[in-house]
User: Which sequence fits this backbone?
């Protein structure tokens, strides 16, 4: 049957008008049309992943213009691919094209004229990414149409594009979320067509919607964090191709029109001026294409380029012309808008197809200019930073491996990192969050020289504070006063040394005596070696590192009995801080040695053997103060009305960072399963929504569960619920006084902070801060919720508090009134309630997998909360 179908496709014929979005023309009859494989025309239905892959495979099998690479597999096992479309001649000389792209992308060490020769002969490389948000699915349908045109079109314009451009197409950047959308729509689609009423089920989806990944992350925020395999594969592939243009095709509200770059302010100060000029070039081309069809569009509104983790912001900082395209959503495939018109999937995909076609046409026409400017960007990233006041950023090595993790993340972003071989003096370093000082840093620290091709990206990710124009701030303050929408689209601070909680410095020169850091990550660290002989009395390991957290989780999961030593101790040359973990041999069966070896191998944790309960300094290990760690049965509350991202961040943390089983429980079912759990984690949620789903009976039952020994951990908005008198579980209260009412009409001014990094101080004697060795802790404030402590504050309750006003801000923007309101207030609160405990985080310590420095604090809440 397959042979017969293929034979039919290969019958020579003059094929015209087979493409629904382009002008009628001639197409290669050997290349199957979308309808011949999918069974419907582009835009009639949303295409499920397996059918998309089937069509792509058919294109690759029948067209010499198309190649397909697998870049990753999602957490749900779906293939994420990149389709390479260009002329047969370009495919034939692809090794030379790839070599030229690498030479231009990294001009260091190039011979005279080598870069200009490569620039003159290579095609431009354009990257088109579709449907990073699963429900923004017209992008994938537009990609199918574009793939067919490039694979089969015989017209002169298509051939010109193929000769001048290597087009890289990622047809569905978020396969798991996209499939949720497709299946939701399929289940709600009836025989009589798509109901166009906006409130109908087909346009709503199930909690928490299809926008996000398997773990409910927004993958359009993941480009430098790399929490997901799709992102890791995508970034790795991007760095292999060095694209000159990168477009991310999205959807927005159904009542909008179409957006393309230039973006609105703010624009990250590390964006080069040449990118701004190219935005205008492509805007004119897109506008011309849309004007020919009489379609409406807009620019410079709604979408910024400040946060460097977007799907175009990250490419921009590598030298590509990154551009966001936003099409009004057709919802479930056809939706009635407020003006009475019906927007269909076919319409939406047509608009995306047209913008993408205009983009690659312009890229072909301006090939020489685009490749030349990209080469200049990569070279100027080196030369511009050479004599800049911030030449390098030095990251101090720490005993817990956070600097190593940060260096590995930078390397994965294509950033050159050097390792400092010996203890080194930095005479005029500026400490992050501090002042100019002379300091000495230990051997094994890292230096990032910003004079490198990826230097602008490195600076954007590492600099302590991303600069905002004073004129932009003035306009925002006036807009706030007159009750106009703000233009802060996302967070305003993300400096990775803060989020990883490492000491870092900016310097005018690059430290001497460094080696490339890549080799350091090719060898397993010595710390991963298991003890050479079995322990006589106990195994002991320090808290706080990601490796020790994984080991603790693995041992508890494997039913190993573990104790917690709240006071520091020394045994021989082994110094253990307060909060160390002790695995007594006699408390376990004879398999403990094997289970320890397995845990150490899996976690890379450093573990010492202890021959006796008698220590040289500190509390003896047989003391009653060394308490057993209970193996917690943990529930994570989800479903309506829990905020989906917050749920996903915590789910990911358990699965991928800690490695400990967690049971996800719907909020509506929580009361019925309380007895099955020792620890319950409630992600961010609106106070009223959580109250409503619990009801009076549920609230009473949850309180009784805590008082009988349960541990309730609340994150972000859920802590506002915990702080209510109605909840009856904490003396913490939400600050209720509003900012001064000097706005138009006398309304209180909004105080939501757009993602600032603030300095906080921790009570390092608290078990919740076991392994946190410095009292100063950077935290994220990304809300307008501030708390007050009770007058009868007890020792150990306010575990982390925001710094005083004068030392509060580390990076990002806060409204003028916020510093006074938040200074000194609690970030982490705990309180004993009966035999149980509540632990409330004012923010989300698991936010986007970004705050690796807070991972030990969250893990301590889970593992030690039931034990102290």
Assistant:
């Amino acid at each position: 049957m397959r042979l017969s179908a293929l034979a039919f496709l290969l019958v020579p014929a003059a094929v015209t008008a087979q493409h629904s979005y382009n002008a009628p023309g001639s197409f290669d009859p050997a290349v199957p049309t979308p309808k011949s494989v999918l069974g419907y025309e582009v835009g009639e239905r949303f295409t499920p992943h397996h059918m998309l892959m089937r069509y792509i495979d058919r294109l690759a099998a029948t067209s010499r213009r198309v190649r397909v690479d697998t870049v990753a597999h999602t957490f749900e096992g779906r293939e994420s691919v990149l389709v390479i479309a260009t002329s047969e001649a370009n495919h034939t000389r692809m090794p030379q094209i790839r070599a030229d792209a690498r030479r231009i992308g990294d001009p260091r060490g190039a011979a005279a004229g080598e870069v200009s020769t490569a620039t003159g002969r290579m095609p431009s490389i354009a990257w088109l990414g579709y449907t990073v948000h699963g429900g923004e699915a017209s992008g994938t349908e537009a990609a199918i149409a574009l793939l067919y045109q490039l694979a089969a079109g015989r017209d002169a314009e298509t051939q010109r594009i193929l000769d001048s451009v290597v087009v890289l197409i990622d047809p569905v950047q978020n396969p798991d979320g996209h499939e949720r959308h497709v299946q939701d729509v399929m289940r709600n689609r009836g025989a009589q067509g798509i109901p166009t009423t906006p409130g109908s089920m087909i346009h709503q989806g199930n909690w928490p919607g299809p926008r996000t990944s398997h773990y409910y992350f927004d993958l359009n925020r993941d480009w430098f964090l790399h929490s997901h395999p799709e992102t890791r594969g995508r970034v790795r592939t991007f760095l292999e191709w060095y694209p000159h243009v990168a477009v991310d095709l999205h959807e927005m509200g159904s009542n909008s029109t179409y957006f393309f770059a230039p973006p609105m302010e703010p624009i990250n100060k590390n964006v080069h001026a040449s990118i701004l000029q190219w935005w205008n070039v492509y805007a004119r081309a897109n506008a011309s294409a849309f004007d020919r069809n009489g379609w409406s569009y807009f620019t410079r509104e709604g979408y910024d380029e400040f946060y460097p983790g977007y799907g175009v912001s990250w490419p921009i900082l590598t030298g590509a012309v990154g551009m966001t395209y936003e099409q009004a959503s057709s919802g479930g495939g056809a939706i009635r808008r407020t003006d009475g018109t019906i927007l269909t999937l076919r319409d939406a995909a047509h608009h995306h197809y047209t913008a993408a076609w205009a983009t690659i046409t312009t890229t072909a026409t301006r090939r020489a200019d685009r490749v030349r400017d990209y080469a200049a960007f990569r070279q100027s990233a080196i030369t511009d930073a050479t004599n800049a006041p911030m030449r390098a950023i030095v990251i101090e090595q720490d005993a817990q491996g956070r600097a190593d993790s940060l260096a590995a993340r930078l390397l994965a972003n294509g950033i050159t990192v050097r390792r400092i071989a010996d203890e080194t003096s930095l005479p005029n370093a500026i400490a992050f969050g501090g002042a100019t000082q002379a300091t000495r840093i230990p051997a094994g620290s890292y230096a990032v020289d910003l004079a490198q091709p990826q230097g602008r990206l490195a600076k954007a990710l590492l600099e302590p504070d991303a600069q905002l124009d004073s004129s932009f701030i003035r306009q925002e303050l006036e807009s706030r006063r007159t009750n106009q929408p703000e233009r802060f689209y996302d967070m305003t601070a993300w400096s990775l040394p803060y989020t990883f909680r490492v000491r870092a410095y900016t310097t005018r020169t690059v430290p001497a005596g460094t080696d490339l850091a890549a080799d350091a990550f090719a060898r397993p660290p010595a710390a991963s070696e298991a003890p050479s002989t079995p322990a006589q009395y106990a195994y002991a390991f320090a808290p706080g590192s990601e490796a020790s957290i994984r080991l603790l989780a693995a041992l508890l999961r494997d039913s190993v009995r573990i104790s917690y030593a709240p006071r520091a101790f020394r045994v021989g040359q082994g110094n253990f801080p307060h909060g160390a973990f002790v695995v007594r041999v006699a408390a376990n069966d004879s398999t403990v040695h094997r289970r320890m070896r397995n845990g150490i191998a899996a976690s890379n944790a450093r573990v010492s053997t202890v021959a006796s309960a008698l220590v040289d300094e500190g509390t003896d290990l047989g003391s009653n103060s060394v308490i057993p760690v209970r193996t917690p049965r943990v529930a994570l509350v989800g479903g309506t009305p829990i905020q989906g991202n917050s749920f996903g961040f915590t789910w990911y943390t358990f699965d991928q960072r800690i490695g400990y089983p967690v049971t996800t429980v719907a909020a509506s079912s929580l009361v019925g399963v309380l007895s099955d759990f020792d620890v319950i984690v409630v992600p961010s949620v609106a106070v009223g929504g959580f109250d409503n789903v619990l009801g009076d009976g549920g609230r009473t039952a949850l309180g009784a569960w805590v008082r009988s020994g349960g541990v309730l951990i609340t994150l972000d908005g859920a802590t506002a619920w915990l702080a209510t008198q109605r909840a009856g579980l904490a003396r913490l209260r939400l600050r209720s006084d509003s900012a001064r009412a000097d706005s138009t009409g006398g309304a209180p001014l909004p105080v939501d902070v757009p993602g600032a990094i603030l300095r906080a101080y921790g009570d390092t004697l608290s078990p919740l801060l076991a392994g946190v060795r410095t009292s100063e802790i950077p935290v994220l404030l990304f809300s307008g919720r501030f708390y007050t402590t009770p007058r009868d504050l007890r020792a150990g309750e306010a575990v982390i508090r925001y710094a005083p006003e004068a030392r509060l801000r580390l990076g990002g923007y806060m409204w003028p009134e916020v510093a006074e309101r938040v200074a000194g207030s609690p970030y982490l609160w705990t309180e004993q309630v009966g035999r149980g405990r509540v632990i409330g985080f004012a923010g989300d310590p698991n936010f986007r997998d970004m705050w690796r420095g807070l991972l030990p604090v969250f893990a301590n809440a889970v593992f030690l909360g039931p034990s102290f």
